[in-house]
Amino acid sequence: MTFAHGSLLILGSGTSTGVPMIGCHCPVCCSDDPRNQRSRCSALIRCGGEHILIDTATDLRFQALREGLHQIDAVLYTHTHADHVHGIDDLRSFNRRDQQSIPLYGSPECVATLQRSFSYIFAPQDNRSFRPRLRLETITGPFAIGSVPIIPLAIGHGDDQVLGYRIGNLAYLTDCNRIPAATRAALAGIKTLVIDALRFSPHPTHFSISEVIAFVQGLGIDRTILTHLSHDVDARQHGAVLPAGIELAYDGQVLPLIFTLS
Ligand SMILES: [Zn+2]
Ligand SMILES: [Zn+2]
Ligand SMILES: [Zn+2]
């Protein structure tokens, strides 16, 4: 078996409003700790020469400038809530480098919603320069992007079923508050789990921090990284008291991953 190394870059670790929140003067929103500056939730997988974006968050342009991104080969969508999708038009800048259309992968519901919500991109028409060149690909099971094996994982987000992804020894599960048994089984052997943990108090569609701590117990995961964080969570105060192996995500964080070459 041949192994390849890659990484997952946390582009955004914040909830749908971002942190700081517009108009909020709480200690976290006013904090000068850069780990409390959380853009909308997104990540980038870099491995095997591929640059695979997870979601096109509202802050995509800002995230790409901050990280010096100039190449996106594919996008994996988790679901179509606005914070995960509304940076889609900024994919135009990545078309300039590469004349190919960028494939966007999502569940059948996700693909249908994108098609409906962004008809200026997907409706058949002459090629207009102002629209990004994108093509929708429906996920029906595990697949590969180049040499990178992608395993889609069904997770519950309130009443919705959305997708998380496993890439090698890392899984990325946002947004969620329910993990079906089949997905829990599919996490066997992972070393790193990036997972939604909005805040301390319960929420109808997102895991709380204590719910995630309970969920990962006994799974044998080395590092659990909490993402989609709200302004209730202070990087310094709360990051220091989490159980061993559980950490708060921050924008710009890089996590290693290893996968088997397909
Ligand atoms: Zn979200
Ligand atoms: Zn605040
Ligand atoms: Zn959501």
Describe the structure.
This protein has one domain (3-17, 41-140, 148-260): Metallo-beta-lactamase, Chain A, CATH 3.60.15.10. 42% of the residues are buried. It has eight helices and 14 strands. The strands form two sheets. It has a seven-stranded mixed beta sheet. A seven-stranded mixed beta sheet has the order 7-8-9-10-11-12-13. The chain has helices spanning 60-67, 82-85, 92-97, 108-117, 119-122, 181-186, 209-216, 235-239, and strands at 3-12, 42-47, 50-54, 74-76, 102-106, 134-138, 143-145, 148-157, 160-167, 170-173, 192-196, 223-227, 246-248, 254-260. The protein is an alpha/beta fold. A hairpin with a 2-residue loop joins strand 8 and strand 9 (160-167). One zinc ion binds at residues 79, 81, 157, 175.
CATH topology: Metallo-beta-lactamase, Chain A
Determine the mean pLDDT: 95
Provide the CATH superfamily. Answer: Ribonuclease Z/Hydroxyacylglutathione hydrolase-like
Poorly predicted residue ranges: none
Annotated CATH architecture: 4-Layer Sandwich
Q: What oligomeric state do these chains adopt? A: single chain
Structural class: alpha/beta
Q: Give the tally of β-strands.
A: 14
- Give, in order, the helices and strands: EEEHEHHEHHEEEEEHEHEHEE
Strand order of the largest sheet: 6-5-4-3-2-1-14
**Distance between the amino and carboxyl termini:** 9 Å
The profile of the biggest β sheet is: 7 strands, mixed
Overall shape: it is globular
Query: What portion of the residues fall into strands of 2 or more residues?
Result: 25-35%
The ligands found in this model are: zinc ion
DSSP helix count?
Answer: 8
Rg result: 18 Å
